[in-house]
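Notes to self after the Tuesday call (sharing in case useful).
The group wants a holo model before anyone commits to mutagenesis around the pocket. I volunteered. Ligand is FE2/S2 (inorganic) cluster. Logging inputs and output together so the record is complete.
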Amino acid sequence: MTEKNSQIQAGSSVGKNLIRVGAWERLAGQARFCADIKMEGMAHVVVVRSSKHHALIKSINLDKARNSRGCLGIFTSRDIPGKNRFGIINKDQFLLAEDKVRCKGDPIAIVVGETLSEAQKAAQLIQISYQELPSIFDPEEALRPQAVKIHEKGNLLGSRVIKKGNPDEAFSKSEIIIERYYETSHVEHAYLEPDAGAAMIDEDGILTIFASTQNPHYDLKDVCDLLNLDESKVRIIQSPTGGGFGSKLDLNVQGFVGLAAWLLKRPVKMVYSREESFLCTSKRHPLKIWYRSGATKDGRLLAADVKIIGDTGAYASYGLAVVTRAAVHASGPYEIPNIRIESIFAYTNNPMSGAMRGFGVPQIAFAHESQMDLIAESLKLNPIEIRLRNSLRVGSQTATGQQLDASVGIAKTIESIKPYYDEARNKGPVLRNHKRYGIGTASMFYGIGNTGVQNPSTAQIELEKDGSVILYSGAADIGQGSSTVLAQIAAQELNLDPSTIKLVIADTGRTTSAGATSASRQTYISGNAILDATKKLKDVLVTHAANKLKIPRQRLEIKNYSVVDRKNEQKGITFEQLATIMSRTGVPLKWQGFFDPDTTPLDSETGSGKPYGAYAYASHVAEVMVDTLTGEVEVLKVVAAHDVGRAINPENVRGQIYGGVVMGLGFALMEEFFPGKTESLKDYHIPTCADVPQIVPIIVEEFEPTGPFGAKGVGEPALIPTAPAIMNAIADALGVRIYKLPANLERVMAACVLSKES
Amino acid sequence: MPDQSQICSDLISISFVLNGKRINVSVDPSETALMALREDLCLTGTKEGCGIGECGACSIIVDGKVVNSCLTLAAQLDGREVMTVEGIASDAAGQCLQRAFAETGGVQCGFCTPGMLLSSYALLKQNPNPSREQIIEAISGNICRCTGYIQIIEAIEKASTDLLNSNSEEK
Ligand code: FES
Ligand code: FES
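Result:
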């Protein structure tokens, strides 16, 4: 079918800067985010949360609260009709705590009030008595045999080992060995829209939940289990979502509003305050990384020995995915023949860590890119040169033994930043006495989609009776622009104006699962599912047109909602006419597409396997100015080259790069969440426009044969090289390296002092 | 957020011009302008991102100046002229900004967008031809977690150029 269709000319919507779907309603203030929802008789939900890090719940006294004015209901774990467990990988979270709390902010009860203030007032009247347990805040401590158990099964979340070649022998042959210890901190997602959701029971008795979410179809499953309802009785609709970056993959509101609406049979809404969002939603995992590299004296990597210890906090969330992804990417985008990587994560009483843009790769990239510079420095090699010398190529084997057979754009990204690097080296700015200028580079690779597991997407495309086209996808667009890109892919195949395609998106009542909006997977995986569906519809359209027009298929093309004769465009048949013919002859108008990347599971002992169907690559250069009197780091410029396979919407790709670079800048210099201390945007600073450097995005297109029109992904890669490039630039400026992120004023000042001493 | 039920004071009635129309409304003296707009007047385009003056999602224009509506009392709007995102398309400057934001990728998730639009609208009204520094200054109180700001800055530059061009054509 593919071959037949490929003879038929496709459109020109791929590669175009189509205006983002939903932009206009947002610009008019008309997009209805969850907090904007108002329903007749709507009540308000607030959650009563643990004030202790780790404690047994001795008693909960609800009497006073129940009698408080406007209180419609109070629910605890006993009121949950189904199984009080959820979690995307490990079912270790409780919608409402049973006998124990494992971190501050653990939910214990929900209160529903006529008004928000009545709900809040009743919530304050709930009395909880605790018996405190010893708390653990360090993952290594949590893994000691005598440590108090946070979960019944113990404190080990999981581990991953990757082995290749003979690292011991390789280290003994290495002419240079660099061994260092790195650390990263908790990071808050700080999407601008605090978590929110609403729920109601519709006229057919279906519990309908509106949520700010990245994964409606997963939400559906967990909500059904919690409420003991059949999937046909619940519908999740993704509302416009004000950013997610991973944290809205968790069930932050869906269970609460679902439970309240179902038990009270009333519409309800719940909106997190910013403080609640800081306290209770997942964070980026802080990692401790020991990294030993061995190389020859001409800078060829021979071996890497890496140990990663991660803190997943009180619950797993996406922790297991981070355990593995950090390990798989610990080599960096380099060919290293001998590898030993061990990654191990533990539960603590810290806030839960989960998915955050990059799943552990931004952290591990800080380590491997610092190592590359350290090796280059001790061998007096150019940092660009050493990266080029070791970079993966077509035919290379990754740490997991996956042979890369196409679309390996790492060298191209390095080559495209090289002129900027060289120019900065040669010129540099004029220095004032206490300022130091530095240049740094960093590279990364990133596997698209979930690691070594099935993670399919499904989609449908439908021809309506009037000849218009509707695209159905479960893929949540959280601001990254997937809806636009998916429409462009379908439009390309059908040679239509993408803005005329009707979209039905991320509604479990009307779409099938596209999997999560995570792991930079929607363009590649859902894009392919949509392409599959669209090709089927196209095939059917062309077949019927050939039949009707008595013209061979090869001579037909699609133009403007018609199938026409290439030689005589007057001769053709409209989609509308074809729809009539098809429905009369019993041919379906709606076609289904499916795609699952070609992966294999990783071996539990050696970690070998094919974890991903495609990889994205990137390299950045950062220029910084360090003020040695204040410790302030100004990032002057970032050049960011990204191999995205094919840019379906280049403006969108640039938008992802700009946003990623700025988030990476925050990760490098300012963002550190202190559990138990950080409360709000007052004490957690994210970059404002005053912090933004000049950013030069470079799109590299190394065609991916398995991608839709060659596309891969860019959402997470955009952020990954920025922090290590900035850290390498600071080291270049000061001659002293910082080993813990973020490089805040204090850490930079300490480095400045060392720099002056030496 | 103040707990309204604890405050027994009576509602006060205020009158102000909202997006070009005079309105009268009764508000609680402790109520913020953000709550009054979103809850009492059902204009939900103005967003709450933090409630403490840190993010700018709640920006509105009061007598030509941008303020955080989460830190402004509703009562303070009495007698003023107020603009929210719902009124932004009322003139050429607002329309140019909307178009430029759409075309340059200035909108990703769109949660910061209303605040960004109002801060840049107030800027263009005061200074039709702002420098990049002045643009950055004008939106420095508005946080965006998605875009990295570049395409927003470019959108404001484009809107300014478009507006100047359309004005000179009219003359
Ligand atoms: S909501 Fe007003 S500044 Fe954040
Ligand atoms: S577009 Fe999402 S916060 Fe600005």
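Two things stood out.
DSSP finds 19 helices and 28 strands in chain A.
The pocket of FE2/S2 (inorganic) cluster (ligand 1) is lined by residues B 48-51, 53-58, 68, 70 (CB under 6 Å).
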